[in-house]
Amino acid sequence: MQTKSTPSPVRSPDFAELFTPKLVTVLREGYGLAGLKADAIAGLTVAIVALPLSMAIAIASGVSPERGLYTAVVGGFLVSLLGGSRFQIGGPAGAFIVLVAATVARHGLDGLLLATMMSGLFLLAIGYLRLGTYIKYIPFPVTVGFTAGIGVIIFASQIRDLFGLTLTGPEPGEILEKLPALWAAAGTASPAAIGVAALTIGLIVGLKRYRPGWPGMLFAVVLTSALVVALALPVETIGTRFGGIPRMLPTPGLPSISWELAFAVLPDAIAFALLGSIESLLSAVVADGMTGRRHRSNCELVAQGFANIGAALFGGFCVTGTIARTATNVRAGARGPVAGMLHSLFLLVFMLVAAPLAAYIPLAALAGVLATVAWNMIEKPAFAAILRTSRADTAVLAVTLLLVIFRDLTEGIVVGFLLGSILYIDRMSRTVATEGYASRIEEDVADDVDREDYDAAMASDPDTVVYRIPGAFFFGTAATVGAVLDRIADQRRNFILDCSVVPFLDSTAANVIEGAARKAHRSGVRFVIAGASMDVRRTLVSHGIRAPDVDYAATLADAWDLVQGRTVEVVDHP
């Protein structure tokens, strides 16, 4: 990849630069009372969201609700203290519900704690070996497919409490066994539980639409709990099933450790580490896109490793970066990692003050909270964009989705990645086969003296920067190109992305360009895509990359004329 200006020599960062926590960076930049006030407000906002969610995720994972709070308090604090992202919020995540519940069912609580601790060691190894960069190469359709699959499984796991069903035996874990068992218990449905769950979902959805600044989840849980107590509704609560939650963190201690148990939970620990690394880095990327900052991926994985070890010592389970809470942190005005640390301290204060009240929370309300989380995990716009883009990406998404739902989460990710790689090889083989006779864009400037003069004019313009992608743009190159686009897309008044020799791009590449275009638009930078073929434009437009974020020009010359204010022929969308 090259720019029109002479690139400066690239220096490989040393160990200290790669693994210095962002907290240190923020403090070096200068951190005063104004920053602390902003972080305190953001931390309190996130804590209000995390309080009911942490308990709901713990219950859905097959453990008691206080373990979700231990995870958020201890793990969340360490993620922010040691992490490579300014805004990452760590804690229990809905994506882990399936894996954690299966681990508890097979190996009990001791097995879960040991698997969590082992996953922390694996994450430390991945980070210190600098393997975090390779995790970014997972194709976009795979991430969309597995998050959607997890959303489906989470919803299925909440049907029992949503409808207040009474089962004759333990609830099956596999979805193909779970659904018939739940259907057989349909006659035991509780109208009170259904009403509480429906009211919870309605309040969350309604407040998000009409009062987006209000803590919808906490408001819904508090109101439905008050109604259950006031009306003496016959619904199951945290108190009736678990007996309430403690008011303090437990004394730290090692779980039961044996070679036999370690070998038994090894596959679970590997799955925790794999999913945790993917989820954390995805969350950090979301924060980067919202703020224009860049995280340190390997430092972030090291922090996740220490956080999982710390959470297990206090009786918690898997910790990862959480996309929804991280986005809430950014929107609430956080300045740095102190917000995440304060979010954990606020949760600890809530435990000290309000623990007795948690016994009155109806499980149907927490099921309603997780039902909305499951719905939000299905990325509807991205799903639709992939379906419109290509059959190949659709196949990757569908295979990943179905394997996650009906087989295994790790299997879905691995098979989806392998299928995406095979499809890329097929695409590249067809591209290479036609490269000898494929014509270049006729209107492009010839490689002669005029072209040299033309390049010199663009290079000397202080308001315009041109970046050329000289080949296929796909998930394997998305991380590299995305890093460059992040650095240069907001440095000038005009940014021209030359795609005249890009034979194809996939959904991951389109997602990277979409992020750069939106960032440029927010910064007041004019973003022009030049020379893109009809197929490339079709993929970009399918992902929402259109005016006012970007303009399309048929050639690089037209793009230059466009940013200079001269009239050019408008390129129609495909």
From TrEMBL:
TM annotation in the entry? 40-60, 72-105, 111-131, 138-159, 179-205, 217-235, 269-289, 301-324, 344-375, 396-425, 465-485
Annotated CDD domains? STAS_SulP_like_sulfate_transporter (cd07042)
- Tell me which InterPro entries the record gives: SLC26A/SulP_dom, SLC26A/SulP_fam, STAS_dom, STAS_dom_sf
- Membrane topology, from the record: Multi-pass membrane protein
Location comes to:
Membrane
Q: Which PROSITE patterns does the UniProt entry name for this protein? A: STAS
Tell me the Pfam families matching this sequence: STAS, Sulfate_transp
Q: Please provide, in alphabetical order, the Gene Ontology terms of the cellular component aspect for this entry.
A: membrane
Tell me the protein's name. SulP family inorganic anion transporter
Organism of derivation? Aquibium carbonis
